[in-house]
Amino acid sequence: MSEPVASSGFLDGGCTCRAVRYRMVSKPLFVHCCHCRWCQRETGSAFALNAMIEADRVQLLAGEIVLIDTPSQSGKGQQISRCPVCEVAVWSIYGGAGEAVRFIRVGTLDEPSRLPPDIHIYTASKQPWVELPSDIPAESEFYKVSARWPPESLERRAALLEKFPRRR
Ligand SMILES: [Zn+2]
Ligand SMILES: [Zn+2]
After folding, report:
1. pTM, to two decimals
2. Are 98 and 12 in contact (CB under 8 A)?
3. Rounded to the nearest whole angstrom, what is the distance from the C-alpha of residue 31 to the centroid of ligand 2?
4. Distance in angstroms (rounded) separating the CA atoms of residues 28 and 26
5. Beta pairing partners, 52
6. What is the pLDDT of residue 94?
7. What is the whole-number distance in angstroms between the Cα of residue 2 and the centre of ligand 2?
8. CA of 128 to the centre of ligand 2 (A)
9. Hey, which residues does 62 pair with through a beta bridge?
10. Is residue 73 within 8 Å of residue 27, measured between CB atoms?
11. Inter-residue contact 69 to 157 (CB < 8 Å)
């Protein structure tokens, strides 16, 4: 079931049992490597890699997902989308960012190396043995989006905010 991923602009991925297959139809807005303790706990690892993308740029190619309500650091909660069979998480929706943006778990892509982190965040709680590259921005906690995202992503973000005004 291999797909001609590299020849298309698409980024395809899925769960471990392959019941769920999805496609990102464009590049993401921005990619976080998050070293917060919440991500460490949820992944059972040292950090999480999340590619943010507009929800309408993600297509479910096969299977269905179940939404699991999960606490989040902000207190606003998140919904983690999981395969109902193997229960691997493929993306999250955060209360703060809203349903308009999905946080794709980069490790579920067929070719995760195509989306290296644009920024390392919450490095204050990173594991001491993780050494960060000097050429990628790093923040001890969060960061100011307008100062870090490339112009094209900021434009896409502005379009989103127009379509989905923040409900805070
Ligand atoms: Zn599965
Ligand atoms: Zn995190």
Report:
1. 0.91
2. no
3. 12
4. 6
5. 30, 103
6. 85
7. 31
8. 16
9. 21
10. no
11. no
